[in-house]
Amino acid sequence: MADVTNLRIALGVTALPVARAFVKAQLKREAAKYRAESMVVAAIEAAGAGPILELPIGMPFRAGVEKAGADHLLFVIHPRGTDWALTTIRVGDETFDNRADLPAAWAGLTDDALEAASGVKGATFCHNGRFIAVASSREAVLKMADIAVAEALG
Asked: In what helix (H) or strand (E) does residue 79 lie, and over which residues does it extend?
């Protein structure tokens, strides 16, 4: 009986730090999610009724967009290291459908080919799936976003 009791104590002593680590990690994830959602909602309030949301950094944004009821938004831009990203907004968790896709003419293009197709100097990449594009500067990504909005609404 003593061996079983000692084993239970040993397992409990071993399991407790592991369980604590899992709980702490989950709390950190939830806190980060809340911070991102709060930043997104604040950015939406600051941006007004335009179809493009600019975030200060890349972060999960769809939950904040939904929480704010920002159905007018079509695209999100944010800095990404040394360049800028233009991303679509999915319509839900269970789908890859977007509120609006990036222009079909951009799909799979990079660098000079994308600059020629988009007419934007500094356009560097568009995924074949048309859910993300990248530009070398904020100005370039804003031009790409404006073009994408015009095509989506046109």
From this structure: strand 75-80
Of 94, 97, 102, residue with least CA distance to 76: 102
Q: What is the DSSP string of 9-37?
A: HHHHHHHHHHHHHHHHHHHHHHHHHHHHH
Which phi and psi (to 5°) does residue 91 adopt? -80, -15
* Distance separating alpha carbons of residues 22 and 70, to the nearest angstrom: 34
User: Residues 53-77: pLDDT tens digits?
Assistant: 999 999 989 889 988 889 999 999 9
Cα–Cα distance for residue pair 141/79, rounded to 1 Å: 10
Q: What is the pLDDT of residues 73-88, one digit of tens each?
A: 999 999 999 999 999 9
Q: Report the half-sphere exposure of 84 (CA within 13 A, side-chain side).
A: 22
| Sequence-distant (≥ 6) Cβ neighbours of residue 96 within 8 angstroms | 90, 129, 131
Q: Which of 96, 100, 117 is nearest to 108 (CA)?
A: 117
Q: How far is CA 67 from the centre of its chain?
A: 15
